Amino acid sequence: DADVTQTPRNRITKTGKRIMLECSQTKGHDRMYWYRQDPGLGLRLIYYSFDVKDINKGEISDGYSVSRQAQAKFSLSLESAIPNQTALYFCATSEPLKGATQYFGPGTRLLVL
Amino acid sequence: ILNVEQSPQSLHVQEGDSTNFTCSFPSSNFYALHWYRWETAKSPEALFVMTLNGDEKKKGRISATLNTKEGYSYLYIKGSQPEDSATYLCARGGALNFGKGTSLLVTP
Fold first, then answer.
1. Are A101 and B45 inside 8 Å of each other by CB?
2. Which residues of B touch A105 (CB under 8 A)?
3. d(C-alpha B6, C-alpha B8), whole Å
4. Residue B43: CB partners within 8 Å, gap ≥ 6?
5. What pLDDT, in 10s, does the model give residues B25-53?
6. How does pLDDT run across B79-99, given as a tens digit for each residue?
7. What tens digit of pLDDT does each residue of A54-98 get?
8. Chain B residues 69-108 within an 8 A CB cutoff of chain A
């Protein structure tokens, strides 16, 4: 079984809809991250959490919110989806060590019409 | 350098060729540099993490070096194989600041 899972794997939605992307992990890691990938732009950090009570904005947090429900779960919400949020979204986890390797989920491909 | 930059953006080599890519990054407040390998339709997977100036890491035919004083890292692939075709990402920091990647295509 995968250590980091994301649901859904693919999603099509309409402009203005609220959607949630979910991430779960069985690695026991404290730190969790959400990235988006756009062609030609690499991976950009949206939000990250170093433990259940910690939430931090990343490079591109506008239009997104997150919830860290438990150590194992980190959800990303798009309150009112817009077409330029069409992207591939990755969740990742790491140990609470400086410079620790990150372990990525399989990604969620989101299309906003 | 303000951001992590990678070059070249893409590379096409023949099977058996050796190749290398560059990652440049801000040298101030440095504590880790990561290399990831990202195959199409899969998730990025960690290759190396380096923390000390002069670090060298090796995994099979792939190796990496780190110069934290001047802010660069090289990734080398010796005797490229078609299965090496992927995007190679470097990233700096804890909550990682990624470069845009180098896309490698190895043809038989």
1. no
2. 43
3. 6
4. A4, A90, A104, A105, A106, A107
5. 988 888 899 999 999 889 999 999 999 99
6. 999 999 999 999 987 667 899
7. 999 998 999 999 999 899 999 999 999 999 999 999 999 999 887
8. 89, 91, 93-101
Q: What is the pLDDT of residue A98?
A: 75
Establish if A106 touches chain B: CB-CB under 8 angstroms. Answer: yes
Pairs of CB atoms within 8 A across A/B = 52
Reduce the DSSP state of residue A105 to 3 states and report it: coil
pLDDT for res B94: 64
Task: Confirm or reject contact between B60 and chain A (CB < 8 A).
Answer: no
Residue type, B60: G
User: Given an 8 Å threshold on Cβ–Cβ distance, is A44 in contact with B49?
Assistant: no
What DSSP letter does each residue of A10-58 carry, written as one string?
A: EEEE-TT--EEEEEEESS--SEEEEEEEETTTEEEEEEEESSTT--EE-
User: For residues B52 and B33, what is the distance between their CA atoms, to the nearest angstrom?
Assistant: 9
The answer to whether B89 contacts A43, with C-beta atoms less than 8 Å apart, is yes
Rounded Cα gap, residues B25 and B97, in angstroms: 9
Which residues are CB-neighbours of B56 under 8 A, at least 6 positions away? Answer: B63, B64, B65, B66
Q: Which residue has the tokens 């991250």?
A: A33
Token pair in block for residue A84: 């330029």
